[in-house]
Amino acid sequence: MVHQSKAMGIFAEYYVIDLLTDKMVRKRVRLTRAVKNYPTKHLRLLAAQKIADEINRKLAGGWSPLHETDEGRLYTPIAQLQEKFLAAKQREGCRDTTLRDYRSITNMFVRWCEDTGRAKKRSGTFLRNDAVYYMDFIMEKGNSNRSYNNTVKILRSFFQWSLDHCYCRENPFAGIKPLPKPPKKRILISKETRCQIARYFETECPQMLLVCRLVYNSAVRPIEAAQIRMRDIDLDRHCITIPPEVAKNKRERCATITADMCRYLRQFVDTNSPTQYLFGPGTQMLPGETHVAFSYFRKKWDAMRKNLGLPDEM
Length: 314
Description:
single chain, mainly alpha, three-stranded antiparallel sheet, 10 helices, 46% helix, 10% strand, elongated
């Protein structure tokens, strides 16, 4: 609306919702100078009304004068902030597995915000008490201490990035302490048991036996083994090259392989294209155009352990 007073002259007055407080805020814009060149009061008021109408159209289109301040990023919705964070991490060259962890945990966080009505909150209004409520939710789900700590770590990183880029004024997860790490329950596998496992996989899934040998003999991480291509295998030099984009530390290295592994691998190297993966999808994990899911190795191992009656710690 357009008003005129002795103190302010001609001015437009309107209300806009402050997304940080969810309250209506009154704004006034002085228009006396903008319309001073019009010769009559009537024409000046008409010109002022046109300016007010333009402001109304902008407000109807979602514009807010509060977004034009230095604190405009504080109004970013949580879901939109997640997209920006993941895009930034991808540009930084995060490993695919790390990016998947970021996406998985922040997806769960955004869903919780939506289920609890906190999705209406903006990045600048998600505070420490909200973070505490979320970690209580994670605890009540019965997650392990490791899962709890991983959630704290990733969400702390998420909001630290937001803080560094002016999307919030504080990191709400910064003061949340991790839970004590439980001791790892692992036992050594005896020679007799290793022979038993080898006989099992030799019959059930020879490719899984190769995975075990790559881990045990060649110190290849399972996640690295899942992404080996035919072109990485050098049978003449008895080694497999782990490319930097696959290696955990982003450094290329060569993993030596035994003579019997070379003999087994030759059937695949001679008959498959260089770009095919050594372990493809499917129950037998034979070479394919796409690589096997890393989690499938664990499923195969767990099934073997159950069938042979081996303890969970193994």
